[in-house]
Amino acid sequence: MSAQMPHKSIVVQSLAQIGNCGLFLLRILAAVPSSLRHVRETVRQLWFVGAMSLTIIMTCGLFVGMVLGLQLYHVLAIFGGTSATGSVVALAIYRELGPVVTALLFAGRAGTSITAEIGLMRATDQIAAMEMMAVDPIAYVATPRFLAGVIAMPLLCCVFCAMGIFGGHLVGVSWLGIDNGTFWSNMTANVDVWDDIINGVMWKSIAFGAVVSLIAVFQGYTTPPTSEGVAYATTRTVVSSSIAILALDFVLTAFLM
Amino acid sequence: MTDTVQAKPDDRALVRIRGLTTVLSGKTVFDALDLDIPRGKVTAIMGPSGTGKTTLLKHITGQMRGDKGEVRVDGLNVPELPRDQLFGLRERIGYLFQNSALLTDFDVFENVAFPLRQHTKLPEVLIRNIVLTKLQAVGLRGAASLMPSELSGGMARRVALARAIVFDPMLILYDEPFVGLDPIALNQVLKLIRTLNDTLNITSVLVAHELAAIKEVADHVYLIANGKVVAQGDPKKIADDGSPWTRQFFGGDADGPVPFQYPAGDYARALGFKEGAA
Amino acid sequence: MSQRKSYAVGTGLFIVLGFAALAYLATQTSSVANSHQGSSYTVDAQFANIGALKERAPVKVAGVRVGQVQSITLEPGKDVADVTLSIDNKYNQIPTDSVATIYTSGLLGDQYVGLQFGGAKTYVANGGHIGLTKSSAPLEEMLGKFLGSGGAADAIGGTYSVRADFTNVGTLSVGAPVKMAGVAIGSVASIKADPVKLDATVTLSIDKKYNQIPDDSSVSIFTSGLIGSQYVAIQPGGSPNSLKDGDQLVLTQSAMQLEDLIGKFLVNGSPSGGNNAGGNGSSNTPAGKH
User: Fold this and answer.
1) Does the structure show a pLDDT above 90 at C156?
2) A148 has a chain B CB within 8 A of its CB
3) B270: confidence class by pLDDT, cuts 50, 70, 90
4) In C, which residues are within 8 Å of B110 by CB distance?
5) Which of A212, B208, C17, C289 has its CA 20 to 30 A from that of A10?
6) What CA–CA distance (Å, rounded) separates A160 from A158?
7) Chain centroid to CA A41: how far?
8) What's a Pfam family in this record (chain C) (predicted)?
9) Are C168 and C257 in contact (CB under 8 A)?
10) Closest CA to B195 of B220, B162, B222, B236
């Protein structure tokens, strides 16, 4: 297949890639029932893609919240509306920055490691060894990582948002001196559980988690099992995930609004 | 599994390949290959690099399918097996990969225990005993808690062997088990192959280049070239059977039936001279 | 095995942390009240115009949230909107003569339904109907009531002059239009300060066509548009006698500051009837006589 690739145009290649990716998703989903026997593996992957990403997610969430608080305070000060800082920080984080930045970080932190890991497993015949031990590698390798990504993303996104709010509070209240009560009551009054948290945070991040982990697993699974192939696939994971996240974000925002 | 495909109990060949033809990206790998692997014996498959010895093993396990022909393992025609039966068959086959293929996430113990955990619901005590028995058999019980990255090449191969025999398979396929081993490790693996074959009554198939090692361990040798079996017989005598293939292969001649030159166009023309001008 | 355990524990901690963060976001940073609550009862109200009222908009009594708008449908065959209010069971004692009004919170805020309780001793039952409603008044309409619109009189048929004293003329300038029912009927001829009464005496020169203005009419200074120029508006009274050249209009209302103006509407979320100040935009009697 790779020998024929260079002759095709980029458009045809991309379409073929998307098509293969879709078919791969079907294989992953078809393997969900049999992967239930490997719950432990899913838990283990949840540890690697989820818990291990916490540090970067929390740090970035904190700084995003802090910089938002700082920027918005000064813009809102022009209109004498600094009391709205809390609600604007919260809305910006819940509706856009939380899911999108978490997904981008997730693609960089967990997506690349999934791709590289699966690519190396193929290069060292571990996938073939599983086939030989009558273990379906899709059910054992691909599906648990995919499921772990789908589960981990919304949780990470919640942590990111909470840290962002904390960062905004830190700058807004502790540093710039917005009244603590005003900060919270304004936020509470303007943030809606269903519109902002369930639709904004949860659905988006579940969709992003599915897309990022699908791309990561797919790239790792289909790359030529060489060191060059793994390096290339890792790059592709970051590039395709980022494009997919931002494109999907637009579609979801238009759809959920 | 019906009676019609079940092997006759007295069938001496565990693996029976008939008329196997495989073409991979325009190159004919097997050309109507016929080959039998006798039960309970150590069979070696030799041949120049690139003749598809590893590919042959993959055909036996169903990882690859030929374009034509039959591959019967214990009476089952592998290319036609549905996935679940193929997986059932694979549970009875051990496969030793050239680079060991240990799961890098797990330590030695968990690597050997992996097939047991995947396919059985045995109590932990029993799994522990089975795994330690197999590790003891390959002499690595003491290394149970090491990670694969901490093992030498020879140790990794022995761990992979322990994993391959954890289900007491009827057939073990060894893909280049001697490559990259120092003489001590090579002899350890050699001894293991022979012992396992004799004590567990396993059928072994060995893909290798090292004639000296094969002379010691194998009962039967196939020499494959150009997609066919070009010579076979007792490993101690095969080198003297007089065929040009064996003479070149075991004599190690640079040129012979296996050409030194990879097939190419006219040399003079490739250099820009007119044909026959020089 | 210990390796497995640590994964499980760590992963468990991660999941707990994630859900704790979710719970925190949902309870501490957002209004749970906006979500659907278990026990509630519903009442209907019909409005001629709901403006920008949306489903899930709050329902308030005395400014306190008691429920939300459950659904908005068009009454089949009529041009009235049927609004179903889902109200917390705690507040199920709504007098039958209560008034439901659609208000706007703040200048640019969302709309909500306000209930003013009546004095009846009977209460609206679950699924019942609130009969008295006041529809949404679009901001433009509300401001328009005060402000009228521009335009100057042509004064072709000659003019006559009347005087009016104001305590404050704001930024009214000579030449500014004089309007009745929103139509320009003349212009401001002069503005002078009265040295004795310390008032501003404004002379209005009115087109002779409009010589049947009752002599008890009131006169006010308004602003056209939010930041427009000021003009003089005449609200006709009921007297049988008409204004004559040189008369003085006694009932005057001085210029209001824009802040006062907006404050009147918006602080309470709605204009109350008394603030309509005669409503020159809707009054039509004298002009129609012509």
Assistant:
1) no
2) no
3) confident
4) 3
5) A212
6) 5
7) 20
8) MlaD
9) no
10) B162
Instruction: Summarize pLDDT for A48-61 with one digit per residue, the tens.
Output: 999 889 999 999 99
Residue B203 in contact with residue B38, Cβ under 8 Å?
yes
H, E, C per residue of C107-134:
CCCCEEEEEECCCCCCECCCCCEECEEE
Architecture of domain B15-248: 3-Layer(aba) Sandwich (3.40)
Domains of chain C, residue spans: 39-136, 143-289
Within 10 A of A81 (CB to CB), how many other CB atoms are there? 14
Average pLDDT over residues B180-205: 86
Residue C212: CA atoms inside 13 Å, Cβ hemisphere, count? 8
Could you tell me which chains touch chain C, where touching means 3 or more CB pairs under 8 A?
A, B
Cβ neighbours of B163 in A, within 8 Å: 133
Q: Say whether pLDDT at C33 is over 60.
A: no
Q: Could you tell me if C3 lies within 8 Å of chain B, comparing CB atoms?
A: yes
Are C223 and C230 spatial neighbours (Cβ–Cβ below 8 Å)? Answer: yes
Scored b (16 or more CB within 10 A) or e, C136-146 reads: bbeeeebbbbb
Q: Is C2 on the interface with B (CB under 8 A)?
A: no
> Which residue is associated with the tokens 């710039």?
A176
- pLDDT above 90 covers a percentage of chain C that reads 1
Dmax of chain C from CA atoms? Answer: 108
**The two structure tokens encoding residue A132:** 């030989």
Q: CA torsion A91→A92→A94→A95, rounded to 10°?
A: 100
This prediction has a pTM of 0.69
Contact A201 C14 (CB under 8 A): no
Q: Please provide the average confidence, as pLDDT, over all residues in chain B.
A: 84
The two three-digit tokens of residue A199, written as one number: 């639709």
Given A40, A159, A161, which is nearest C17 (Cβ)? A159
With CB atoms and an 8 Å threshold, state whether B91 touches A134.
Answer: yes
Kindly determine whether residue C35 and residue A194, on different chains, have CB atoms separated by under 8 Å: yes
Distance from CA of A154 to the nearest CA of C (A): 8
| Nearest CB to A125 within list B25, B97, B118 | B97
Residue of chain C whose Cα is closest to the Cα of B110: C1
CA–CA dist B155, B69 (Å, integer): 38
For CA atoms A79, A80, A84, A86, give the dihedral sign: positive
Domain edges within chain B = 15-248
Report pLDDT for A148: 94
Pairing of strands C200-207, C183-193: antiparallel
Q: What is the CA radius of gyration of chain B?
A: 21
Neighbours of A250 (CB within 10 A): 9
Question: Per-residue pLDDT averaged across C125-130, rounded?
Answer: 83
Indicate if ipTM > 0.95. no
Strands C159-166 and C248-249, sheet pairing? parallel
The one-letter code for the residue type at B73 is V
Q: What span, in angstroms and rounded, lies between the C-alpha atoms of B274 and B164?
A: 58
pLDDT of residue C277: 41
Q: Enumerate the residues of chain C whose CB falls inside 8 A of the CB of residue A168.
A: none
Amino acid at A70: L
Find all residues with CB under 8 Å of C182, minimum gap 6, and list them. C148, C149, C280, C281
Query: Which fold does the domain C39-136 belong to in CATH?
Result: Elongation Factor Tu (Ef-tu); domain 3 (2.40.30)
Average pLDDT over residues A64-71: 94
Domain boundary assignment for chain A: 9-256
Chosen from A133, A136, A145, A226 to mutate, greatest number of chain B CBs within 10 A:
A133
| C82-127 pLDDT, tens digit each | 888 888 887 878 888 888 888 876 655 667 888 888 888 888 888 8
Q: What is the pLDDT of residues A91-101, one digit of tens each?
A: 999 999 999 99
Distance from C-alpha of B271 to C-alpha of B268, rounded to nearest angstrom:
5
